[in-house]
Amino acid sequence: MATKEEIIARAKAAVLDFDDEAAEEVAQEALDAGINVIEIIENGFSAALGNVGERFESGELFLPHLIAASDAMGAGMKVLAPAVEGKIKGEKIAKVVLGTIEGDIHSIGKDIVAAMLKIAGFEVIDLGRDVPIDKYLSAAKENSADVVGSSALMTTTMVNQIKLEEALNEAGIRGQVKTMVGGAPVTQTWADEIGADIYAENARDAVSQLKGIFAK
Ligand code: B12
After folding, report:
1. In sequence order, what E strands does 84-212 have?
2. What is the mean pLDDT of residues 115-141?
3. Rg of the chain (C-alpha set)
4. Whose CA is nearest to atom 85 of ligand 1?
5. Residue 153 Cα, ligand 1 centroid: separation in angstroms?
6. Which domains does the chain have, with CATH numbers?
7. Is the predicted pLDDT of residue 186 greater than 70, yes or no?
8. Span 148-156, mean pLDDT?
9. Residue 46 pLDDT exceeds 90
10. Ligand 1 centre and the CA of 151: distance in Å?
11. Pocket test for ligand 1, best of 153, 194, 201 (most atoms within 8 A of CB)
12. From the alpha carbon of 107, which atom of ligand 1 is closest?
């Protein structure tokens, strides 16, 4: 049987090779071998995608490569999804409404945050990507959410996180929820500037900050 390190290395390779089938296979093998899904996501798929992103930025790779790499990661994540869901038992720590902000279709980071929060015992209402501000509002109200989280991957869409703050205020529910922002261009300074309650750098940080607030 392959070791954990070998499986993680193959998960990385599947994304770097843009190979959906290999990603599915290695995800299944990771499950069969009882490897922690967090490790395969963070150290395998996500690490490889980070590498593809850097090579895209340096001009070595192009947009079709990015799409193919994120598709491969998506294929692997689909296989891991039931394991993530399976970990969700018992009483939830808090309810988190989460989505990628209006105008932005980058979903990979948000999906990782959603998966890690679920694993940690939070209920996550995942609204998907390119989420209209109104949809955050109705989901927050309907679910009596404790947290409204938004992801933005572009400098052109992070401004919509301001709209979300304003809309929650106008709807009179800003006081009942904590707002959480994240995504590559988002910083603590940005969160402070727009009045968001929580900024987290990555999924692990998001879990630990929310646990700090809600897990008593
Ligand atoms: C993959 C990718 C894509 C994929 C997205 C696939 C998908 N389903 O998500 C595709 C190919 C579709 C794509 C499209 C585009 N992309 Co693109 N893309 C990327 C890339 C390479 C990686 C993003 C990623 O997934 N990273 C991996 C994840 C794991 O990291 P992450 O998202 O940062 O998430 C982590 C943290 O940020 C945090 N986090 C994330 N969300 C949240 C939310 C909360 C609440 C919290 C607490 C934490 C948190 O936790 C996550 C896990 O640890 C980045 C470059 C980069 N280095 O960021 C460009 C990048 C974001 N894209 C960019 C652009 C311009 C585009 C396009 C406009 C390209 C085009 N010309 O068509 C379109 C976007 C169209 C649109 N309307 O949205 C630019 C944005 C520039 C800017 N203005 O800021 C970047 C920076 C590349 C570049 N340098 O030019 N892209």
Report:
1. 95-100, 123-126, 147-151, 178-182, 198-199
2. 93
3. 17
4. 154
5. 5
6. 4-86 (1.10.1240.10), 95-214 (3.40.50.280)
7. yes
8. 98
9. no
10. 10
11. 153
12. 9
Closest Cα to atom 35, ligand 1: which residue? Answer: 109
Q: Give the C-alpha separation, 140 to 124, whole Å.
A: 11
- Name every protein residue with a CB atom under 6 angstroms from any ligand 1 atom: 46, 49-50, 53, 56-57, 63, 66-67, 70, 103-110, 112-113, 149-151, 153-156, 180-185, 200, 202-203, 206
CA distances from 26 to 72, 135, 204 (A): 11, 36, 23
Supply 145's token pair: 């959410």
Ligand 1 center from residue 98 Cα (angstroms): 16
Closest atom of ligand 1 relative to the 180 alpha carbon: 45
Supply the pLDDT for residue 170: 97
Q: Is the pLDDT of residue 213 over 60?
A: yes
Can you read off the two tokens belonging to residue 50? Answer: 């980070």
Overall average pLDDT of the 97-120 stretch: 90
